[in-house]
Predict the structure of Putative carboxylesterase.
Amino acid sequence: MLIHGWSCDERYWRKQIPELANQYRVVTLDLAGHGQSGLRDDYPITAFAQDVAAVVERLQLKQVALVGHSMGGPVALESARLLPHRVAGVVAVDSFHTGFPWPQDEAGMTPFLTQFDKDFHGAAQKMVRDMFGIGADPELIEWVVGDMSQAPKTVGMSAMRHLFQWHRDPATAFDAVAAPIAHINAKGRFGQTPPLSLRNNEEIFWIEGVGHFVPMEAPQRFSETLEMILQGWKFPRRVN
């Protein structure tokens, strides 16, 4: 199951779906407030996880690999907590161990959110543009910047606030997940690669020369890395 990030939707996996679908059953979804899904009043990470769990239950999926990009990483972890006997593993894509300075209290969070409250479109454009690697395709940059900055302000603000709050204590979610957790990260996007403190069920894979949107900026390298992870878990291929 492929889980998109903040102000994105299932289209952001379009470069992975055809190749993955040759070997696995692939499920995508638009989280609430994103893409074609309906709106709600608030957008906490735990509610997004309930969206994922509802799809897994509805489709009666027995063994699931949850692949989450950016905000989708925390969503995948929280989903794994809800589905302990169905989740074979979690792949977090540039979600953790990035060196990003997550604000740890309201005082640190307020300045960041204030700029989005004053000019959501402009602030989103600047933030998203700065997330790309130096050699990224200009057409890809303009499409992603234009698309993400058009997200509904109420959805984007709520989801961002809850994401910041969630990152104050990510250890609680990590400690609750016994399944293997793999990270696919852009290397050194915020300067030096941060020192790692990985649990026994974690491993990390670095992709160089890309920015935050790893699956879109380096689709082939990302797909090869994901396949290596899935086969390391002995995740079953689809039987045709």
